Amino acid sequence: MSMIRDLRAAVRPALRRSTTPYDYDPTRDPSSNSAVVDCAVYRDGKRASDHVSPAEAMRRVRTDGGFAWIGLHEPTEREFSGIAKEFGLHPLAVEDAVHAHQRPKLERYDDTLFTVFKTIHYVEHAELTATSEVVETGEVMCFTGPDFIITVRHGGQGSLRALRHRLQDDPELLAKGPSAVLHAIADQVVDGYIAVADAVQDDIDEVEIDVFSAPSKGSSRGGDAGRIYQLKREVLEFKRAVTPLMRPMQQLSERPMRLVDPDIQKYFRDVADHLARVHEQVVSFDDLLNSILQANLAQASVAQNEDMRKITSWAAIFAVPTMIAGIYGMNFTHMPELKWKYGYPAVMVVTVSICFAIHRGFKRNGWL
To answer: Among 110, 133, 209, 243, which residue's Cβ finds the most Cβ atoms within 10 Å?
Structure first.
């Protein structure tokens, strides 16, 4: 496993720097190999320095006060080790931040809060198919200390650039310190959940209409099962991001924490309320898709039964001429009406009459 991790760490930065992220931050120096997207010192709610190194930012904070906000995008273990040492980050949290793929959580290491958020992005598609990707996930990890906040982002979406600018336009809120930034990140992530939930609701409505509408000629209801199952898998991915975050938001909104300003804690209650609403939506999506899938399978079974009844009806109709032809095909010398002039027409009329009577009976009973 360690060999695989080392290989992944060696390949990841090369891939990252050879391509442009979806939300590229212009504050990042394209000629630099550093994973640091932005690093600044904030004092009294205002940005006090630009384009400083993390070590310099921390030195200025300890000298003049304020707090440092350092943003990173997919750092390797080597890139993050110096920052971790400078800010005294716990090795377990550092390992989680570097290798990603973590569940949303809130952990406390001495004087640092380590928070993991799963970001969700809705993938636009012209038509929902059995292989459509509906949601794309990323991660934002936050190290929150008394005078610093370090954000580590994984994935091509979930950029914090616009959020940083918005906070810089509100010095009064930013003056509350790192906990204000943590709240803003949580609020942005949960707002993203709400937008994705609305989009997924539209996809579910579309599938539901297709399942319960009259099928077009030559179409099969069973073909919708693949789309429903794929949508259910995507909703499950969405659920994995939302459900584990419920407890951390509850802790941040209800439990007094020294690293969270009491005024900011009130705002976390609003985020927790929005998250609870999204969680209820996602759970209802899962239940609704289960019902739609069961209804689709039931309709497919009914359609198969109808086909079997039609096949059986036509088999019964064709059994009559087959039986009569089989009887008169036997090589017996003495058989009724063999020498009669009107024997053949009479047999044909009797055969057609019996077939017509059987067909009418099946039609009346809804089998044909």
So the answer is: 243
The predicted model scores a pTM of: 0.74
Q: What confidence tens digit (pLDDT) does each residue in 119-146 have?
A: 999 988 877 777 878 888 899 999 999 9
In what helix (H) or strand (E) does residue 150 lie, and over which residues does it extend?
strand 148-154
Cβ-proximal residues to 150 (8 Å cutoff; 6+ apart), any chain: 69, 70, 71, 72, 83, 87, 89, 142, 143
What is the CB-side half-sphere exposure of residue 365 using CA atoms within 13 A? 11
First-to-final CA distance of the chain: 63
Q: 139 φ, ψ to 5°?
A: -140, 145
For residue 28, pLDDT beyond 80: no
Contacts of residues 49-56 at CB distance under 8 Å and 24 or more positions apart, as own/partner, are 51/27, 54/82, 54/83, 54/86, 54/87, 55/82, 55/86
Q: What is the DSSP string of 78-128?
A: HHHHHHHHHHT--HHHHHHHHH----SEEEEETTEEEEEEEEEEE---SS-
Could you tell me how many residues make up the chain? 368
Query: Looking at this protein, which amino acid is placed at residue 217?
Result: K
Helix/strand/coil (H/E/C) assignment for every residue in 243-310: HHHHHHHHHHHHCCCCCCCHHHHHHHHHHHHHHHHHHHHHHHHHHHHHHHHHHHHHHHHHHHHHHHHH
